[in-house]
Amino acid sequence: MSGEVLKRARYKTSVKDSGVAGVLKMTEDKFVFMPNDPTSSARFDVEFRFIKGHKFSKGGSNKPALLNLTQDSEKGGGYIFEFENYPDREVCREFVGKALAKFSEASKAGSEQSAVKLFDEQLSTIEMERRIKLLREDRHSVPEEKFGVLLLKGILPLFGETIIAMKLIDSGIASKVKWDCSELQKLHKQFVLSGVLTEAEFWATRKKLLDGNTSRTSKQRVGFKSAMISDLKPLTDGRTNRVTFNLTPEIIHQIFAEKPAVHQAFLNFVPNKMTEKDFWNKYCRAEYLHCTRNTVAAAAEAAEDEELAVFLKHDDILASEARRKIRRVDPTLDMEADQGDDYMHLPDHGIFRDGSKEIIDPQYEQYRRTLSQDLNRHAAVVLEGRPIDVELEDTRTVAEALAKSKRVEAANEKSDGSVTRERLERISRMTEIEDLQAPRDLPFAALCIKDPRDYFDSQQANALKTLGDTLAGSKQIKCSLSSQEAYGSLRGFISEIKSVGLSDPIVKPDIALKVLNGLTQNISSTKFHLGKNPQESVLDRLPIITKEELLHHWTSIQELLRHFWSSYPITTTYLYTKASRLKDAMSQIYPKLQEIKESVQSDFRHQVSLLVQPMLQRRRETLKRRRRSEPQEGPGGERTMGSIGTDLAVMERILELVKPILEHSKTEQEADQDHHQNQARAQHAHLTSTAHPVRFPLVPGSRENCSPLCGLVKMGVLLAFSLSDLREVGWRRRV
Amino acid sequence: MGRSAVMAPVPSKLYSDDVSLLVVLLDTNPFFWSTASLPFSKFLSHVLAFLNSILLINQLNQVVVIATGCNSCNFIFDSSSVPANPNLENGRMPALCSNLLQKLEEFVTGDEKLSKEVLAAGIGSSLLSGSLSMALCYIQRVFRTGPLHPQPRILCLQGSPDGPEQYVAVMNAIFSAQRSMVPIDSCVIGAQHSAFLQQASYITGGVYLKPQQLDGLFQYLSTVFATDLHSRRFLQLPKPAGVDFRASCFCHKNTIDMGYICSVCLSIFCKHHKKCSTCGSVFGQAQSDGNSATDRKRKTPET
User: Fold this and answer.
1) Signal sequence: where (chain B) (predicted)?
2) Which residues lie closer than 8 Å to B112 by C-beta, 6 or more apart?
C-alpha cells in the first residue's frame, strides 16, 4: 500500500449540502481533512478503524463524484466527500478499501461492545460474488427456489442493501445459478443460518479460498479461425479478365501469421518501396498464379519480378523455423516407428485441391506449394494462437505488433539456454551405450549391515500380532533329532510315498466338506478382515447414509474447531462468546453421533461405536494426550475422529481458564505501561491482533508478577495450548 | 532400457490370460518335517495331486517345483521338460510324480551333504530367499525366451519358521516379485504364521492362507490356489489379512508410530542416536538447538 493520498475534496455533512472545500489526506491508518478556510470548523482527523465501510456514487456524466465513509451506525453519520473528478475519487476509494480491509480484522475484535453490529460490514460485490461462487461449487443440486431463499436468508440480510440485490440481477447470477449443495454450503447453512457463526466469521477463515479464485479468472483470448485462407478465392465476373480478391483485416492478419515471408516483405516494402495497395495487388497476383497451378508461368513471372518472386518461392523463414523445430524434437523419439505412415513420396497423395489434381514437375519445384504444407502451416498457426492483441484496423500496426511478438518469442527461446542443455544431456544419456562407458566411480561407502535380524524383529512382532499368533508359542517346538536322523526320516517319507503311491482318496469327503465350510465361512465373516486392511477404510463398509452422516459431522467438527482456534487466544469477551457458541454447537453434535450409533444395524454397530466412542468418552483426556494424537491424524477416520472428544475437552478447559481472566482484565483495562513492550511482541506474532489485548507476556519470565495471567503463563497452561493447538491457525512460536 | 533391448528380439508371443506358470516352493526342511503333524509323505501326496490338477486345468499350464532346503535350493520338477513317457510307472503313480520324487530324493541327499553338523536348538529355517530368487529368475527367463507368455505366480508351501537373517534378501525378492507383478501365494503348513510370507502375499497381491485342517490340504490347495490369475478376479478368495506395517524400534523393540530412521540403512529408532547401531553411520546434529528441542518434543512419543 502506498504511503498516502492527497486530494482536493469538499466535505459534506449530507449529500445535498454544498460542503466545505479543502484537502483530504489519507495515510495508512487515518484520514485528515483540512479545509481551505482555516477558520472553518470542519476540520477532523479520523482513524480508519472507526470507519465501518464506504459507499460511493456511480460514475456518471453530471453526477458528483461522492465518497461516503460510514461510521458505526450507533454513532451515526459518516464522512461524505465530493471530489473534483472521478479519477480522484477512484484513487481515494481504492485506498480506503485497502485500509479498511487491513482494519477489518482489528475492527472485528475491536467492536467488542457491538459484536452483533459486524453485519454492517460492507463487502465489495466481487467478494460477494466469489462467496456465492464458492457456495455453489460442487454438484449436488437443490431446486432453484431454494437457492433464492438461501441467498436471501444467508446473504442479503447481511448486507441489507438493495445494491446487492440489483447486482445479483445485473450479473444474472440469481436467474442463472443452479444452487449446488456443496459441503461448504452445508456448513454455511448449518452454522451461519443457525447463528453459531456470523457471516463474516465464517468467511474470515476462508479468505484464501476466496483469493485463490480470482487469479484463475483471466480474460479468454480469441484464437484464429480454423478456416484456411485458401478461402480467399478470386472472383471473376465472367465477362472481362478482371479478377477480384477480397482482403479483410482479419485475413491479412492471418496471412501475416501463416506466411512469415509475406509478413517480412510487407515490413520491408511498405510504405518505402510500394504502397500497401500495390503490395496486396502483387500478393494476390501470386496467389492467382498458385490457383491456376501454372508453375511454368509462375516461374516466368518470378524471374521478371523479384518482389513477386518473394510470394511465389518457398518461404525461407518457415523452412528455417521448421528446421529449428526439428532440432528441438526429443532425441529419443523413434521416428522410424512412423515410417509406415510416411506419404512424403506421394505429394498430397492424390488430394484434389480446388477441383484439380496437382501435377509434379520437379523443375519448378520451388514454385509449387502442396496442400499438406499449407494445411500443416495453418494448423500450426491456429494452435499457437493469436499472439497479439491489437485492433485489426491498420495493416501496418498489425504487421509491426506481430513482428514484435515474434522477436519477444525468439528472445525468450534464446535466453532459455537450459532447455538446450537439458536436451543435450538427454541425448547423451539416451545414446550412451552402457558397455562402452568407463566405470563410474562415484565415491561411496559400502553399506555394512551388522545384523539383518534387527529388521525382521522390528516387523515380525507386529505382523504376527495381527494374525493372532504369539511368538512365545512358536519357539517351543524343538527338534531333538540330529541332522542325520532328520534327513533320514525325510528320505524315509519319500520312499514311503514311492512305494505306497498317492493316497486314495486324497482327501476324505467329510474333511473336504469341513475345509470348504471353513473357507466359505472365513470369507463371508467380516470379522476376519475387518479393519485389518489399511487400504480399506472402516467407513467404506458402513451404509452410505451413515457414512455420509458421519463424514458430515466430522467436517462440521473440523469447521467449528477451525473457527475456535482462529479466535485463539481468547483475549476479549467477544471472542469468548464466540468460542462458547462454538463449543455449544460442538456439544450438540455428540447426541447426534450417539443417535447414529444406535440406528445402525448390529453388524456395523460395533464399528460405528469404535468410531464414535472416542468422541464421547475422551473428554477427560489430558492435553498432553491430545498433542500426541494430533500427528496421527490421517484419512483413516478412526484416529482423526478420536481426537475430537479431546478437542471438546480442550475447548471447555480453555473457556474455563479464560473466563475469570477476562473478567479480571476488564477491571484492569488500563494496566501499567510496562507491558507495552510485551504487548507489542504479542501482537507481532498474533494473527488477529485485537484492539484490547489482554496484557500478558507471551514470553515467560519477563514480567512474571504483573497480573494473574502471568502466573498462569508461568504455569505453562496457556502456552501448552498455544503450542499444540495453534498449529491449526498456522502459528509457529518459539518458546 | 537394457531390458527392452533384450526383450525386443522375441518376435511374437502367445499372450493368454488363462495360462498359468505356477512355481511351487516346497519346504523340505527335514527338522521341520520330523516334528510336523502332517507326515511328509501325506503332504507330498496332497501336493502331487494338486500339481496334477493344475496341469489338467489347462494343457498349456506349466508347473515348476523348487525344493527349499536348509542348505540349498534346487529345481526338482519342470513340467515343460518332463520326458514324454506317459505310461504309468509301476501302476501306482504318473510318470511326473515318480520323476519329481526321484529328483527330490537326490536333492535331499545333496542337501544333507552340505549340512554342517551343528545341532541347533530349534528347527532352523529353510532358504526361502534362495528359492524365491530362483523362482523369479525362472519366471524372467520364461518371459524373455519362451514362446509362451503365461501368467506366472509363485506358491510357497512353507512350514519352517522364518529366518531373520534372510530378512533383507527375502524382502528384496518380494519387491522384485512386486515389480514384475508376480503374486506370491503362501500356504503355511507349520505351527506358526510366517511374517515373511504374510508380507510377501500382501505386497504382491497374493493369497496368504494357514490351513487349519492339514489333512484336507488338497482341498485348500485346489479351492484357493488352483484358479488362474484371470479367474481370481471373479472369486472371493480369503482376503489377505492386512499387515501391520508399524515397526518396532531396533533399540527397545517397542512398537512405535513415529521415530527416527537411519537414512542409510533404514533402521528405526525411537530416540535420536549419535550413531546407527545397524550400519554404523554417524548422524549429524540437528540445525539448531532450539529447533531440535521442539522437534524432539513433538516427535518423540512417550514410552
Assistant:
1) none
2) A483, A484, A487, B30
Across the interface, do A523 and B30 touch by the CB < 8 Å criterion? no
The listed CATH number (3.40.1170.60, 3.40.50.410, 3.40.50.720, 3.40.50.2000) that belongs to domain B20-234: 3.40.50.410
Residues of B in contact with A463 (CB under 8 A): 193, 195, 198-199, 243-244
- State whether B242 and A534 contact (CB < 8 Å): yes
Query: Side-chain half-sphere of A585: how many Cα atoms within 13 Å?
Result: 25
* Alpha carbon A125 to its chain's center: 21
- Domain boundaries, given as residue ranges, for chain A: 4-107, 229-334+363-410
A21 DSSP β-pair partners: A10
Q: Between chains, do A507 and B219 touch, taking CB under 8 Å as contact? A: yes
Where exactly are the structural domains of chain B?
20-234, 247-299
> Whole-angstrom Cα distance, residue A297 to residue A721?
91
A431 CB near a chain B CB, below 8 Å? no
- Residue A529 to residue A399: CA distance in whole angstroms: 72
Residue A540 in contact with partner chain B when CB distance is under 8 A: no
Distance from CA of B228 to the nearest CA of A (A): 18
CA distance A246 to A280: 10
Q: Please answer whether residues A617 and A623 qualify as being in contact, where contact means their C-beta atoms are separated by less than 8 angstroms.
A: no
Give the residues across from B63 on adjacent strands.
B22
B274: closest CA of chain A, how far (Å): 17
Question: Which cell numbers in the block locate residue A438?
Answer: 568407463
Q: How would you write the pLDDT of chain B (303 residues) with one tens digit per residue?
A: 434 444 444 445 666 777 889 999 999 988 888 888 888 988 999 999 999 999 998 888 899 999 999 889 999 998 887 665 555 555 556 777 888 888 899 999 888 888 776 555 566 788 999 999 999 999 998 888 877 778 899 999 999 888 888 888 888 999 999 998 999 999 999 888 888 888 888 889 888 888 888 889 999 999 999 998 888 888 888 775 556 666 778 887 777 778 888 888 888 888 888 888 888 888 876 554 444 444 444 444 443
Spatial distance between the Cα atoms of B197 and B205, rounded to a whole number of angstroms: 11
Instruction: Indicate yes or no: CB of A534 within 8 angstroms of CB of B108.
Output: no
| Contact with chain B for residue A715, Cβ under 8 A | no
CATH code linked to domain A4-107: 2.30.29.30
Q: Which residues of B touch A473 (CB under 8 A)?
A: 191-192
Chain-centroid distance of CA A234 in Å reads: 52
Scanning A478-517 for CB atoms below 8 A from B yields 478-479, 481-487, 489-491, 493-498, 500-503, 506-508, 511-512, 514-516
pTM: 0.43
What is the ipTM, given to two decimal places? 0.78
Residues B225 and B185: beta-carbon distance below 8 Å: yes
Query: B-chain residues within 8 Å CB-CB of A493?
Result: 33, 39-41, 44
Which of A474, A489, A627 faces B34 most closely, judged by CB atoms? Answer: A489
Residue A495, min C-alpha distance to chain B (Å): 8
